[in-house]
Amino acid sequence: MSHTALIPSHRKPRQSASKTALRAGVAGGVLSTIAVAGAAGPAQAEPVTQTIEMPTITAGLSTTVAASAEATQQVALDLETQANQDAAAATAAKAAKKAKAEAVRKAEAKKKAEAAAKAEAKAKAEAAERASRVSRSTERTTLSAPSGSSSSSGSSVSTASAPASSSASGSAASVVSFVQMQVGDAYVSGGTGPNSWDCSGLVQAAFRTVGVDLPRVSQSQSTAGTQVGLGNLQPGDILYWGGAGSAYHVGVYVGGGQFVGAQNSSTGVVQKSLDYDPPSGAVRVL
To answer: What's the total number of domains in the chain?
Structure first.
């Protein structure tokens, strides 16, 4: 065996006869065509004109664009309308709030005016009532004392011996005027004014107007001055019911056989004749 028998050959592999013939035929055909064209010489190529219709797509596109534009415009109009409505609602709410505040202010002003008018009317009525009381009391003190006598708790009071009219002056006149101005006020146990009293509270307040500070209770007031007989009374004397030092009720003699006292819760402060409730005794402080 040759020493090169197992070494692969470096030559190109041989092509099959069929592939070689095919390639030869193709090459021959191409060369033949070129030869024929060369033999024919240059020839004028006839221009070819052909119109190709392309599909129309702009019609649908324009419709879509138009619809989109219309939709955009509608959205803009809707937004503008909503904005206008919101602005109108805000303006209306602000106006309503302002109107409500104004109505509340006017209502409060009216309420205050009505309260002030009522207070003024009440004050005028009270002033007129007090003036009327003073007038009535003045007229009463000029009347003659009723005749006759009556007794209570073993004490005898002769109203015939009482002064026929009030001749109070100075401090006594001030005390009489004060108690007469309270006629018609309510009786309240422990009351010290200005519109409700008990018996000793009224007497104490009356004498305080002239600078005399009396004890607070009836028992002490019944011994606060000089004891005087019921037949020798003067306007401004303190009347008491019960014993001296143990009195249960007091009042002020106003002249003309009459007294003023805070009697009870049914009558309130009254001006009455001594015969209405004859006292037990009297003291003179002024």
So the answer is: 1
Domain that holds residue 280: 149-284
- Residue 198 in domain: yes
Q: What is the pTM for the complete model shown?
A: 0.46
241, 280 in Cβ contact below 8 A?
yes
Strand partners, 238: 252, 283
Q: DSSP code of 276?
A: G
Give the CATH number, domain containing residue 224: 3.90.1720.10
**How many angstroms separate the CA atoms of 176 and 254, rounded?**
6
Q: Report if residue 96 sits inside a domain.
A: no
* pLDDT (tens digit per residue) in 94-144: 889 988 988 898 888 888 888 877 777 766 666 555 555 555 444 444 433
Q: pLDDT per residue over 167-221, tens digit each?
A: 678 999 999 999 999 999 999 999 999 999 999 999 999 999 999 999 999 999 9
In order, the DSSP letters of 103-150 are HHHHHHHHHHHHHHHHHHHHHHHHHHHHHHHHHHHHHHHTSPPPP-EE
Task: Indicate the residue type of 160.
Answer: A
- Asked if residue 131 is part of any domain, the answer here is no
Give me 145's structure tokens. 């004392």
5 lies in some domain: no
**pLDDT digit string, tens, across residues 155-172:** 434 333 333 345 678 999
Q: Which two tokens stand for residue 126?
A: 């009270």
Q: CA-CA distance, 51 to 4, in Å (whole number)?
A: 71
